[in-house]
Amino acid sequence: MKTLALAMLAALCVSAASKTLDVYLIDVEGGKALLAISPAGESLLIDVGWPKLANREASTDRLVADLKAVGLKRLDTLVISHFDTDHMGDAPALAARFPIRRIVDHGALETSGKGVEARYHPYADLFHKIEHFPVKPGDSIAFKGAEITVVAAAGRVIDKPLKGGGAENPFCRSNKQADAIPQDAEDNASVGLLFTLGKFRMIDLADLEAHKDWDLVCPDNLIGRVDVYQVNVHGQFKGMSTALVNALHPRVAMMGNGARKGGDAETWPVLRATPGLEDIWQSHFSAAGGNDKNPPPDFIANLDPDPEPGKDDHKMLKLSARPDGSFTITNLRNNFSKTYPPVP
Fold first, then answer.
1. What is the phi/psi pair of residue 39, to 5°?
2. Is the peptide bond before 219 cis (omega within 30 degrees of 0)?
3. What are phi and psi of 203, to 5 degrees?
4. 45 in helix, strand or coil?
5. What is the reported pTM?
6. Number of Cβ atoms within 10 Å of the Cβ of 247
7. SS3 helix, strand, coil % of the chain, rounded to 5?
8. In angstroms, what is the C-alpha Rg of the chain?
9. CA distance linking residue 113 with residue 325, whole number of Å
10. E-assigned strands of 245-288?
11. Are strands 192-197 and 200-204 parallel, antiparallel or unpaired?
């Protein structure tokens, strides 16, 4: 009996040591909702998708169902990357149905227009009732079992290289996106995060546009290389920077696009030309991209570009990362998986 008990204990220790950083790219139809669960079981959700609109269902029901489906009973941290409709959603409605321990954002509202003030006030009422932490570049976010570093917030970026960063970026010689392209102040206030688990690194810059994320990698690459790049601005071209993606040198790009939002056709060649990029995974088949500018079906969580109202399956992509730098991505629509071994 004693031998059996010791064997069981050893098995539990091995299981605990092999726990992964799990990341779920939740489908909110071109909004943003990315859930991370640390090896220690701590949870963090970036953004809550859409509120109820005339042409859209609220994302709240879907989020609550998905959070429960992965075994959560509460959220330790909710990060609201910025205060646009498709990211801020209806956070108070989510909090009313699913406990949230703390909220992180980029600080006080500093923009106006597009109804942002009306969205912000109910959200502010919520964070006054629970723990609330505005962050700045260089800060860390509590996430037991892994590390999260803030690389951008409130229109500013880190001013010193992170571990593995600091090298001159030769891709800065390429043309920066023209200043004539409209710039969205709230997009560029986004909280950008770097996740680290041992040798594994993943970056999520929310809606930083190309002229702003340039500051992270030019003239020097302050980030260094990453394994997984969560594509900026849902894959809209205004977030695409050759200097950024080439400097990051990701093995995989993951895109939280909608069927008809993001996944721009112009984005595809920028990503595909990235040295060392092995695959692109997407939340949706991009109608604008057509068959030539979408990945194979196994790499897309939701295939129907025009689902009937209420008939979209809202399938997720799941990433499981290990400290040795290896990771697996699974399409929860059909359970297709691909494992990326550690880099030698």
1. -60, -25
2. yes
3. -115, 140
4. strand
5. 0.92
6. 28
7. 25, 25, 50
8. 19
9. 43
10. 252-255, 279-284
11. antiparallel
Structure tokens at 111: 């923009």
Residue 16 half-sphere exposure toward CB, CA atoms < 13 A = 8
Closest of 112, 91, 115 to residue 103, by C-alpha: 91
Closest CA to 73 of 97, 39, 92: 97
132-135 CB contacts, 8 Å cutoff, 24+ apart = 132/102, 132/103, 132/104, 132/105, 133/102, 133/103, 133/104, 134/104, 134/105, 134/106, 134/107, 134/108, 135/104, 135/105, 135/106, 135/107, 135/191
Alpha helix segments (H runs only) across the chain: 2-17, 60-69, 85-88, 91-97, 116-127, 210-217, 242-248, 267-272
Mean pLDDT by 10 residues, the chain (344 residues): 40 50 94 97 96 82 94 97 94 96 95 83 92 97 97 96 95 66 84 98 96 92 98 95 95 96 94 96 94 96 75 86 98 97 92
Domains of the chain: 21-340 (3.60.15.10)
Neighbours of 266 (CB within 10 A): 14
- Name the token pair of 222: 């302050």
DSSP structure string for 210-234:
HHHHHHHHSSEESS---SEEE-GGG
Quote the strand ranges of 57-187, DSSP E: 75-79, 100-105, 131-134, 147-153, 156-157, 167-168
Distance in angstroms (rounded) separating the CA atoms of residues 63 and 238: 27
Residue 221 carries which side chain, given as an amino acid letter? N
User: How deeply is 300 buried, as exposed, middle or buried, from its count of CB atoms within 10 A (0-12, 13-18, 19+)?
Assistant: buried
Give per-residue burial for 302-311: e unless 16+ CB within 10 Å, then b. beebeeeeee
